[in-house]
Write a structure and sequence with these properties.
about 325 residues; mainly beta; Tachylectin-2, Chain A; four-stranded antiparallel beta sheet; 2 helices; binds beta-D-galactopyranose
Length: about 325
């Protein structure tokens, strides 16, 4: 009898070990480690570079470019991850794959995908930067009926007729959606309103004459904060912000979000995520730490920002945690 019991225990232990190894008992993450490899629920480094996030019901969806080594080099890919706590992410797969339309040369890129959910049409509309040698300077659109795709390519164009390189997205409190795009010939970046169905760019709100890209906006206590990086390609630089009481400006002068010598802790802005909790509203800086020669290993720098009274500050990176229900964040030093 005792013999059978011991055997049973042994079997249970062996099963436990086997399951742990397959990741079925993968440990829950309760901490975000800026700059480190960020494993998804399958233990793979998250591939959602130059990304952005939105929430539907209790789920956050994170979209970005998928840059894994083993992908077909003739296509470009957007991946989606979902999470209920912003710390544990499930890979929802490649939601959009674009193969080289015959009019584009070999060295073309699809970057910085941003997905807008349209409440009226119930469509998910993805904007992305599409380029050849960074000279074509267009935005592309793809559409899906579901957050997790598949997204279908619609078209590519110059928004309002202007060149458009890095793009960012902003949805205001009234649900209106805006595309932020760098317009180099005009010497700045634009904030432009999308049409009601989000399928086109209809109105220029601001041309902000500052050499800023990786643009992103958050509204806090009635003030718009616009943040972006300098134009140094994959290399980091001191990211800066400006404020305005209206998207039409006037915008304040740009100020640093961190000591300039740390070059935004080697990262580049991609999105500001606002979490409205029961206790607190938090704003999270989402940046990319690019590795141009090992793009699949590029890292993420996410940190809760200090925001208020027209000031925006990125604290020195350290592990931190968030409670999405209360909105509270805690830096673990
Ligand atoms: C950066 C831009 C990135 C990528 C890179 C290529 O300026 O923010 O998205 O385009 O240049 O060099």
């Amino acid at each position: 009898m005792q013999h059978i019991l011991i055997n049973k225990r042994r079997i249970i232990l062996m099963l436990f070990l086997a399951f742990s190894m397959t990741g079925l008992f993968a440990q829950k993450k309760n901490v975000i480690h800026p700059g480190e490899v960020w494993p998804d629920k399958d233990g793979e480094h998250i591939q959602a570079h130059g990304g952005a996030i939105f929430k539907i019901k209790n789920t956050y969806y994170w979209y970005g470019t998928e840059r894994s080594k083993e992908l077909d080099p003739d296509s470009r890919y957007v991946a989606c991850y979902s999470s209920k706590d912003l710390m544990n992410w499930k890979n929802r797969g490649i939601v959009f794959q674009m193969s080289n339309p015959d009019t584009l040369a070999n060295n073309w890129v699809l970057e910085r995908p941003k997905v807008f959910y349209n409440q009226k049409t119930k469509k998910y509309v993805m904007y992305f930067h599409v380029d050849v040698n960074y000279k074509l300077a267009q935005v592309g659109i793809a559409v899906s009926d579901k957050a997790t795709g598949p997204f279908k390519y619609v078209r590519r164009f110059h928004p309002l007729g202007y060149e458009s390189r890095d793009i960012g997205q902003f949805i205001d409190e009234d649900g209106k959606a805006y595309l932020i795009f760098e317009d180099r010939p005009s010497g700045g970046f634009r904030i432009a309103k999308l049409t009601e169905d989000f399928m086109d760019v209809e109105k220029n709100m601001s041309l902000v004459k500052a050499r800023i890209e990786g643009g992103t906006i958050v509204k806090n206590d009635g003030l718009y904060y616009c943040l972006g990086s300098g134009l140094t390609g994959w290399n980091p630089n001191p990211n800066q912000y400006a404020t305005a009481t209206s998207l039409e400006g006037p915008w304040s002068e740009f100020k640093n979000i961190a000591p300039p010598e740390v070059n935004t802790y080697s990262s580049q802005s991609t999105f500001l995520l606002k979490i409205i909790g029961s206790e607190k509203t938090s704003v999270i800086f989402m940046g990319d730490i690019w590795k141009p020669d090992a793009q699949w290993d590029s890292r993420y720098l996410w940190m809760p920002m200090e925001i208020g009274d027209g000031k925006l500050w990125l604290p020195e990176p350290a592990p931190w945690t968030i409670n999405v229900k209360t909105g509270e964040t805690k830096i673990l030093k």
